[in-house]
Design brief:
The protein is built from no helices and 8 strands. By secondary structure, the protein is mostly beta strands. The protein has a single domain (about 10-90), classed as Alpha-Beta Horseshoe (Leucine-rich repeat, LRR (right-handed beta-alpha superhelix)), CATH 3.80.10.10. β1 (about 10-20) and β2 (about 20-30) form a beta hairpin.
Amino acid sequence: MDGARRMNHYQFSVDLFLKGSEMEHRGTWLFGSLDLSTNNLSGEISTEIFSFTQFVSLNLCRNHIMGIISSNIGGMKNLEILDLSYNNLSGEVPEAH
């Protein structure tokens, strides 16, 4: 592949609630990055997001996320960019394992 980044496909379903309407997506998506910044997200970071080990970039900044940064984030071995700023998180970001 000579330096090309290899990405995986993931099978899952997503329920979205936009402006009072529910939308559902089922199928295969290709993920490389996820930007959920400035979305008024609250609570703790769902551990399910850490199962997407092929993410290269994850941006959760400028939300209302709280709690301790999970050690499971270290399993995202391809993660190069992580932005958790402007939230109420504590702890350290663990190294990839």
